[in-house]
Amino acid sequence: MRLRKAAVSAGLAILAVSGLSTTAQAAAPQIGGSSEFVPGPPWTLVDNYASRFECVDAGQQYEREGWQYYCYDQAFTTQLWIK
Question: Where is the signal peptide (predicted)?
Answer without folding.
Answer: 1-26
